[in-house]
Amino acid sequence: MSTITGGRISSNLVENFEEIYKGLTMSEAIEEANRCLYCYDAPCIKACPTSIQIPKFIKKIATGNLKGSAKTILESNPLGASCARVCPTEELCEGACVLNHDTKPISIGHLQRHATDWAMKQNKPLFKAGEPNGKTVAIIGSGPAGLSAARELSLLGYNVTIFEANEEAGGLNLYGIVSFRLPQEVVRWEVEQIKMLGVEIRTKTVVGLDITAEEILNQFDRVILAIGMGKVPNLDIEGESLKGVLDAIEVVKRTKIEAPTGELVGKKVAVIGAGNTAIDAATTAVRLGASNVQILYRRTKKEMTAYQFEYDFAKQDGVEFRWLTAPTKILGNEQGEVVGLECVSMSLDETDKDGRRRPVPIQNSEKILDVDAVIKAIGQTKYTKLIEDFGLNHIKGVVDVDSETYQTSQEKVFACGDVIFGNGQGEAMVVTAAEQGKEVAKAIHRTFMLQSEIA
Amino acid sequence: MADLQINLAGIKSPNPFWLASAPPTNSGYQVQRAFEAGWGGAVWKTLGDPIINTTSRFAAASFNGKKVAGFNNIELITDRPLEVNLKEIYETKKRFPNHAIIASLMVEPQQEKWHEIVKRVEDIGVDGLELNFGCPHGMAERGMGAASGQVPELVEKQTYWVKEVAKTPVIVKLTPNITDITVTAEAAVRGGADAVSMINTINSLMGVDLDSWNTIPHVAGKGAHGGYCGPAVKPIALNMVGECARNPLIDIPISGIGGISNWKDAAEFILMGATGVQVCTAAMHHGFSIVEDMIDGLNNYLDEKGIASVMDLVGKSVPKYSNWGDLDLNYKVVARINNDVCINCNKCHISCEDTSHQCIDMLVDENGKSYLKVREEDCVGCNLCSIVCPVDGAIDMVEVKQALPSMSWNQRQSRIASFMTERVAK
Q: Which ipTM score applies to this complex?
């Protein structure tokens, strides 16, 4: 949720990872729902990547039809409960609300959470699987894109099997988003809803290890690759293997699967990068008890990819930002532990090919920061090997797909989510992945419809 | 998924939500859009001798910043030729054979005029007729609408004339601008009506412009009373439906109208005896799509209650609607304040202190914290504090078990009377 402010940091680390925003009270929800104008041809719907019928679901909150409201949300977005919490709403629905021009926009995200929270408490299936059509689909990856595709396909009557390498299904939503924003229960509920439709999820199953790509291609009528992205790449500087050099994705993941260990308590932490993952890592470090957390970015605030609300959130947590600063060397002691970070100041040069100004080092500007840990958050690597196992065309690990059908270079194989996130593929948001999952399901269905027409 | 189909005096529709005879049902284009959106039926805007309408026509009451708490109009019946309306009714019925189309009719109180229009309309194919004895403005000045509807003999006689020739069910739409609506409803029954619908709009003047001193709305600086409807009239309409539903002489179905804005309002009318409902203002405020939540909400409600058909809900609250004299005088509720929920606005205290029974004390505990407490022995259980309380759950009205058995005023009076008789006899 974008309008939440930072929570109070407690010395009880477990408390720090409880969801910060507790949701609207019933009175707040009714009051806010009744403020919605119920616009016709509403701009909020157009601004939602999954086209949730927002005025409709809000009206249903106002009339006390919470079941109908939750169904309206989840019909368009199978991950509506997660998205209510993590969507950058002021960039999307709330940013488009007509009341921005009059009073203040409707808190669409909070209302969406109110309705989906209600549904979560009921814990009953809200949808029914379609009449089985005898076709099978394998989905690799149980993150937002994979889950969304699975839900849509099972509504259409497909027999869906999801392959998931991790212990549990949920992907990025379960392991990659800080729990003070998105608690695991929410993701588990969404997974459960999809399981109740008859979708089989094979966890702890690594494709390429436990089952080969070829086996999957042979066993299923269609395959969806929704494997997301991997670890943070290396900085390619000296000292990267020292104890205390961490991967942002791993840092967040650990907080989601185990109780905080206290290893960052009192530590001075540098986070490299200024995207949303960097913010997550920095605010996580604060909550893990770090005494000082600074984000280092080689460009300026203007070029950072983190959303404004993420930046504000980090500032409220006391995270410091060092702009135009790039790491050059991680310094260690005799025990192999991080003791400092050598950096260099940068300046921005001419505009680069991608439209951003290129950072160049300023000579003799080296300085040493006193830090005990370095968290890398400079993007994520691609699962190139797996992509190639399926024989798919790709550019640097970004799978090549038809922009409308999401079909890859292999007729049977489709791809969606972060695995196709690259140049010109829009923003890497949970809600985008959810929409792509839906689109892929529709595209697969069309291929069968087309076949039966031919037959 | 509950069965939402209704059968109102032989008129069937896929759900209980009809558009009332009003601007939304002025043309085939509109009614067809409404059916596409999900409305189960439509009562076509009143047919009769064409009239000329004024501009402007509508006005609405806002309440504390909320738009359209009430709505008022001075529009008359259809201003389009009868042939045009009939052609569009025919086309609409052909496209939507399973939806209910009811023609609203209004002519001068003459037998041949009623016979003529009924035959022409039924020839084109409608599912029923609704006689407009309710329009309170304009038409009433010409002896039609409410002017007819306020005279029980005219209601009975005109209904009878219609029934002489009508082949489809006849609904008589009643005006609320009358002291006791059951009198005209009974007249409709005597005339042979198959159903009654209520309420039509209530005489109203929406306001006066403080700068121009014009009425709101005005036509070239002059105003005339209009007909009031919308959410504000719901309690008035609900009472009239309830009064008719519990009257044994009015043993025909009721189509409920008056401020119905959502599925909850509809369910209340149905519980109070309406077989279906008619809606206008809510559609005028938000468009036809609001019916989607009406259908979905009512369906979810019935499912949750384990009720298979909406017809099973009809009239379930009618036995609970009674005369004051039948209420139990020995039943007692008192207010109880939950201080953990209370936000200390003190509105309950001042409303009770100034305008009710002075039984809510403002106290301070040993920690210096303010709190409110009801002296239950002095509380008359009027509900006022819980009505003005802004926070759900801060004030509960709780039942206090009484030693005395239940006794109504009527029982008490008859007990006293028989006691007196016995004494006299002795």
A: 0.91
